[in-house]
């Protein structure tokens, strides 16, 4: 029986989220306290991290609408308040010294010392249609970023890559909360309920815990210095560091290289999730091993009761490549690095599609 201190200890979630959910389900059933933790966990997860004073700014204003309604393209829509949204971040501190595709000293890159959110995924759990949706966010998206100097003094809001926001913090809870606020603001103040940040260093261990991940290579990845010689169309099983480099490397000499990498990250994420769920269902030792591995690399605000709710509520939900979305926009070459400008009309349409339902239905 777990003691009180262990019961309230925060757990960590990230790329192996569905597998972690499987483990927590089994543990809680053994303890026999599912019902109580479900109630507490749901309450925790449905509380937005972002300041409640922020209001969603989509559609036209109409005094006749309720607080959770919007007027969009002549129709009234209602926010699905049962949704649970989780911002999942892949944190890569190595990119601190290569900001903008050029070499930086640690002193020059000091303001990003918390590490960049090199991969950003907004996960949406919908209890009404029993689906999990994921929006892949281009790390080069140019958005309003809150900036602090090396001494912790707030400098103001500047237009920067969304990935840089995590660096303006302690690399832990502070950085995560600031990243959540920025992404929520980017999504017109849509509520985000929790966060999970995983170091990219976890990928080799997680990958090999499943015996490798097999993919069809989406674009040429030829880097002799990293022992990478993969060509588009190859069917390969990734092991160890090769899995890490598959989701991290991008050819900075190719325009819009980050979009190519983002497609690989989406591919790897869905393949990994499917394989983890399949193996854990037949052998609980696989799940335990994955959980022990991922917990060393994670920072999250999702506690045991929230895990329990996710486990018992969302384990059987559908999640596949059709539930993965990318933001539309335009890539231009900035002074030092590529800049991605989100198509705001397309973004609003996606928000309405995933977060809203026609009023009265």
Q: What CATH architecture would you give?
A: 3-Layer(aba) Sandwich
Mean pLDDT: 78
The tally of helices reads 10
Strand proportion, as a percent range, falls in: 15-25%
Query: CATH H level: which superfamily?
Result: LCP protein
- Oligomeric nature of the chains: single chain
Instruction: Show unreliable segments.
Output: 4-38, 95-110
Could you tell me the radius of gyration in angstroms? 20 Å
Q: Terminal Cα separation, in Å?
A: 46 Å
Largest sheet: 6 strands, mixed
- In N-to-C order, the SSE pattern is HHHEEEEEEEHEHEEEEHHHEHEEEHE
Spatial strand sequence of the major β-sheet: 13-8-3-4-5-14
Number of domains: 1
Based on helices, strands and strand pairing, what is the structural class?
alpha+beta
Q: What general outline do the C-alpha atoms trace?
A: globular
CATH classification, class level = Alpha Beta
Number of strands: 17
In the CATH hierarchy, the third-tier topology is known as Aminopeptidase
Range of helix content: 25-40%
